[in-house]
User: What shape does this take?
Amino acid sequence: MKIKTIALLHPGNMGATIGAAAATSGARVVWVSRERSKATQERARQAGLVDVKNLAAAIRESDVILSVCPPHAALEVARSV
Assistant: This one.
C-alpha cells in the first residue's frame, strides 16, 4: 500500500520536522489547527502541512496517523483518536 496521506497529531518542533520530511517525499500531511498555538500553526505552515480543521477529518482522510508527542502526553493523545 502506498501511503498518500499522513495525519500528524500535534506538530511540535520534532513532529513538524518529521511532517516536513514526509511532505518533501510526496506525502500529503494533514493536521488540526484548532486549539493550537500561533507558534504551532506557523511551524505547520512552514512545514507544508495541510490544516483539515478537525480530528475526524484528519483520521478519515489519512492512511497513517502519526503522533509525535512527549511521553507524558502519549496516552491522552492516543485516547483522543
